[in-house]
Amino acid sequence: MKSVIVVGAGIWGSSLALRLAETGWRVTLVEQHTPGHVRQSSAGETRLLRCAHGQDDWYASLAWRARDGWRALGERVGEPLYLESGMVWFAQQADGWERASSAVLERLGIPHSLLGPDEGTRFFPDFSGEGLEFLMWEPYAGVIRARRATQLTARLAVQEGVELVRGRAEPHGDAVAVDGEVMRADRVVWACGAWSAALFPDLPLAVTKQDTVHFAVPPAWNGIPAWVDYGASAYGHGDVDGVGMKTTSDAEGLPYEPETGARVIDQASLDVASSYLARRFPSLAGSAPLFTQVCQYSLTPDAEWIIHERSPGVWVLGGDSGHGFKHAPALAAYVATILEGEQEPEKRFGLHERVPTRGLRTSGMTT
Ligand SMILES: Cc1cc2nc3c(=O)[nH]c(=O)nc-3n(C[C@H](O)[C@H](O)[C@H](O)COP(=O)(O)OP(=O)(O)OC[C@H]3O[C@@H](n4cnc5c(N)ncnc54)[C@H](O)[C@@H]3O)c2cc1C
Fold it and tell me: Residues lining ligand 1, judged by CB closer than 6 Å?
């Protein structure tokens, strides 16, 4: 039986462990805390699923496949993990990122439509289209209950035979040392999120603090779609599980240490979120923050991920660049084929020199 050690039980490592266990591998999953612990990037209350990725069709197709994965996972565990609220894109430019996304979605046959800014009131109780050229509606986009999905994916992996080992892993040649004990397998995958930057300092990774804010809003706002203003690096969605309406920024924050950094949001993040809320949804001006959360991005310069074989059989899966959650079930299937030797990873995921770009994230603002 082929064996693999996956280090890191965030959504990437847990989904991969589950996938490999289901396809005949003996899997050991090593996690320093508990799956779904609050310092993980995967432990945000919610994460968006969208297919629009600017002019890139690889990630658009992957997200479309991942949607099936989330729905199937929800059915399997008996609770909905993916809430298909739809998503409205607020396009500030007539021929910018959203137009490029629309062309790709059209080519891939992924449903969407373009609307005038005044049609925003179809989706939101109150809406200002100020500064917008058009809206793009993605009806099958939505919101994933992220932390819950991470916990359940890891639990399912264990039910499928994965051995979950609690401990801090360190590279030991081609093996893995967990709190002093050396473990070996046919393959090793380091899926350590933001911790990868310290484990493998040669990787092109920057870790940044990201603050999220949810506001207390009237009940009429609970069922709204998710929304993204790429030009303003702002996004959000309606209430999920009682934590309020998310309105927050995708612009990258200050450098951050994932294990010890303070889990308190900055006043500036709250101010930015409040002011965007008031501008786009005027009747919500002055809404009180209900829930806040600190998380971290693990950014590559071009927002392309890292899927790299460091030495024979030893892989790094990281650099999610703030847009990796939604893809997890489909990414796990893709990485499994690589570990099986059925295909090489796309060149884009390698350690070549990367040219800074922004098109894959929902953040069009340069900082
Ligand atoms: C504020 C914010 C908003 C986001 N919004 C979206 C969104 O809307 N849509 C989307 O698709 N994505 C989004 N993302 C990105 C998404 O959350 C990440 O892509 C995803 O969670 C990455 O998962 P991961 O498993 O790689 O990392 P993590 O979830 O961080 O997991 C890594 C795990 O590895 C463990 N670990 C690390 N080192 C060791 C070690 N040495 N030994 C043992 N265990 C170790 C850690 O404890 C941790 O549990 C967002 C991220 C943030 C921060």
Answer: 7-13, 30-33, 40-42, 44, 47-48, 168-169, 191-195, 199, 210, 212, 295-297, 320, 322-326
